[in-house]
Amino acid sequence: MAYATWDHPEPLALGSAPLPEYGSGSLADLLPTLAAGMAVPGMTASITELTAADRNCVFLVDGLGWEQLRAHPDEAPFLASLLGSSRGGTGRPITACYPATTATSLASVGTGLPPGAHGLPGYTVRNPATGELMNQLRWHPWTSPRSWQPYPTVFQLAADAGVHAAQVSSPAFERTPLTKVALSGGTFHGRLTGEERMDFAAEQLAAADRSLVYTYYAELDGAGHRYGVDSDTWRGQLMHVDRLVQRLAEQLPPRTALYVTADHGMLDVPFDEQHRIDFDEDWELRAGVALLGGEGRARHVYAVPGAQNDVLTCWREVLGEQFWVASRDEAIAAGWFGPPDRFDERVYERIGDVIAAAHDDVLIIASEREPKESAMVGNHGSMTPVEQLVPLLEVRS
Questions:
Q1: Taking the mean position of all CA atoms in its chain, how far away is CA 278?
Q2: pLDDT at residue number 6
Q3: Mean pLDDT computed over 121-149
């Protein structure tokens, strides 16, 4: 394909994309900072605003973005009262990594590495060994977890250093490959209800003089995807999360720091052709594309051999006013997946030949290939503040 004239608006400059705060205030920096404060060898306290504690608990609420929390103080009075405690009392958020999506974020939290190092750089990415798209949340098609993500987790390093490390989550997550590559190390304790998790997390914190405990709640994210982040269902879930956090905070043993954070924020995208661009019905976007990966606001585009430059040109012309559109090399060099000097070459071909990160309230859906994802009300993945900024609320005992 060739384009003789430029008849579209000037594309967004790649340098205008607000990068995650890798190395100073991202999710990948959280556990290494806490572990460094507990004298775990090899760990660096990169989030300098935090103060060391003997016992640390991370409560990750899936989908609890900073902007959504600030917009709903009535539903979450306890959490709202903690906003000033965020990021060591600065009242500021931290960031997710790119893309701002669950599999990538959980791997960044657990390994303490940016996506370009741990190798889970999206919701779905190409497996270079097979040429197939791999869903890194559901781990389908299956591939060896340790081959895909070979680095030890911070939990494992902490346990090796004599810290009591534990994860308290839904029993359904105990044996999943994502848990294995992102959150393994120490002991896993499955508890069905949020209340049970809060109570048992407090017990695990008190189980040793040095403890690192992780707990998780997923239902807020599910409500946002299905009904939207301003729906009554989502608001009800936020009220429940508020009660859970207060329940845990009131049980903390001495010398404990509790941190409440999230893997990403979320925004609702209207159901019309202006806001939902359907790849499966757009011949321009499909031309030269072998595989479409990622998700609606953070696409990995894999070109047929020899068509990479043409696909990049076309996607920039069609979408460049609404998306940051970069080649693989441009995105890596710009630091989208972490500092370039920390990029692991084994991850290179997992990343799309073209990357499209949404700037506006818009999605690239695929109604035939991805019917369930295309029907979601709430979405996330890109580098906008509503998706990237997450709280780091703190309670100390």
A1: 24
A2: 42
A3: 96
Tokens, residue 78: 């306890």
Amino acid at 275: H
Q: How many residues does the chain have?
A: 397
44 with 154: CB under 8 angstroms?
Answer: no
Taking a C-beta distance cutoff of 8 angstroms, is the pair 28, 114 a contact? yes
**Neighbouring C-alpha atoms within 13 Å toward the C-beta of 114:** 23
**Per-residue pLDDT tens digits for 85-115:** 999 999 999 999 999 999 999 999 999 999 9
Looking at residue 10, its pLDDT comes to: 80
* Alpha-carbon gap, residue 207 to 163, rounded angstroms: 10
Reply yes or no on whether the pLDDT at 311 is more than 80: yes
Q: Which residue has the tokens 């404990």?
A: 256
Placement of tokens 């709202």 in the chain: 80
Q: What mean pLDDT is predicted for residues 35-49?
A: 98
List, in sequence order, every beta strand (DSSP E) within the chain. 55-61, 94-95, 124-126, 133-135, 164-169, 187-190, 211-217, 256-261, 267-268, 276-278, 289-295, 298-303, 323-327, 354-358, 363-365, 378-379, 389-390, 393-396
3-state secondary structure 20-75: CCCCCCEHHHHHHHHHHHCCCCCCCCCCCCCCCCCEEEEEEECCCCHHHHHCCCCC
- CA separation (Å) from 363 to 252, 272, 277, 278? 42, 10, 6, 8
pLDDT band, residue 9 (cuts 50/70/90): low
Distance, CA of 256 to CA of 212 (rounded, Å): 10
3-state SS assignment for residue 238: helix
Q: Which amino acid is at 335?
A: G
Average pLDDT, the chain: 96
The whole-model pTM stands at: 0.96
pLDDT in the model for residue 8: 52
Q: What gap in Å lies between CA 122 and CA 127, rounded to an integer?
A: 12
Place of tokens 């906003």: 83
Distance of alpha carbon 361 from alpha carbon 372, whole angstroms? 19
Q: Which two structure tokens, joined as six digits, stand for 68?
A: 């959504």
Distance CA 46, CA 20 (A): 14
Number of H helices, E strands in the chain: 17, 18
pLDDT in tens, 315-361: 999 998 999 999 999 999 999 999 999 999 999 999 999 999 999 99
